[in-house]
Each structure stands twice: as structure tokens, then as C-alpha cells.
Amino acid sequence: MRLLSRAVQCAAGQREGSRRHFWGWLNAVFNTVDHDRIKAVGPDRAAAEWLLRCGAKVRFQGFDRWQHDYNGLPTGALGRYKIQSIDATDSCIMYKGFDHLDGLKHVEEIKFIKCSYIEDACLERLSAIESLQESLSRMEVVSCGNVTDKGLVALHRLRNLERLFLSDLPGIRDRQTTVHRLQTALPRLDVSLDSD
To answer: What SUPFAM superfamilies has UniProt attached to this entry (predicted)?
Structure first.
């Protein structure tokens, strides 16, 4: 009987591992960058498609409503809709897809909340995008367990960042030094750091 019980537990564990592997593979597929698509529809439309495919939401410039339905993306002339805000709460966006952010010139706000694939390399890549260095003014990083001090310090290149909200980041080891380094590089920056 014990042998049968162990066999059942082993099979159940393999199925769970296979399921996790499948979802990881599918998320990687959703994050694949299609440069031909970006050329065809423009950076804002291609980025919106990527973000919505991964479970995020976008708000376009001049609109109050958040767009969350991939099939409901507005159509129109190339370059008509510009992404102003990104809410990646509970989404599967990952580093592999961050090339979609190149060319976005109107993004003022980004929220990374409960994003299991967001890590230091993502924040470093984000802060290296010149157009976002100019436009991004508000950012939230909450419950992203793979973010450390290194990723947050990289945000110093976002020279127009005015508000940064941080919470539930267990990878942050030296909160005071990290916040001090950011505020030294960005004197206008208001950092809110919730105690975890």
C-alpha cells in the first residue's frame, strides 16, 4: 500500500511540474518580440498587443478607460493611439519582451504589482530606454520577489521620475542606502517605501 501511495504522489508531482513548465513556456511565447509586427503597426500598438497578451492593461493618451481586452484594442491610423500608462498587475511580462517598450514616447506611469517574472534585469532594461528616460514620471514596484537593490538603483537613469512607490520587496537588503542613492541621483524623486 505504501508503494502505491508513493507512486501516486510521484505521478502527481510530475504532472504539477509539467504544468508549471508548460505555463512558463507559454509565457515565454507571449513575450517573444516580433520586429516585423512593430514595423507594421508601430511601437505603441505592438507594445499594447504584447502587454494585453500577457495580462497587463494599458491606457492610451486622451482616454480615461483602461484597455484590458486584446480583441477590443482600438483601430485607426498608424500611430494614432499612444500608450500613456501601463498596469502590469499579475501579468506574465518578462525581460524577453521588454524590447516592445523601445520607441514608446508617451508613457508616464508603470505599475509592476505581483509580477513574478520582473527582476533586476527588467528594471535595468527599462531604465536604459531613452524615450522612457524622458517620459516616465510615476512608477510602482510591489510584491515582485525577484527585485533587489541593484534593480532599483538602476532606475536612477529615469531622469524625470518624480514618484516611486515600493512595497513588499523581500530582495531589498539595504533600504536606506538604495533610497538615498536614488534621491541623490534624482533630487525631485519622492520615494514611498512601505515596511514589509
So the answer is: RNI-like
The model carries a pTM of 0.85
Cα separation, 124 vs 113, in Å, equals 17
Q: What is the DSSP string of 113-166?
A: ES-TT-BHHHHHHHHH-HHHHHH--EEEEES-TB--HHHHHGGGG-TT--EEEE
Successive 10-residue mean pLDDT values, the chain, 196 residues: 42 49 61 90 96 96 94 86 98 95 97 97 97 98 97 97 96 93 95 77
The domains of the chain are located at 1-30, 32-65+79-193
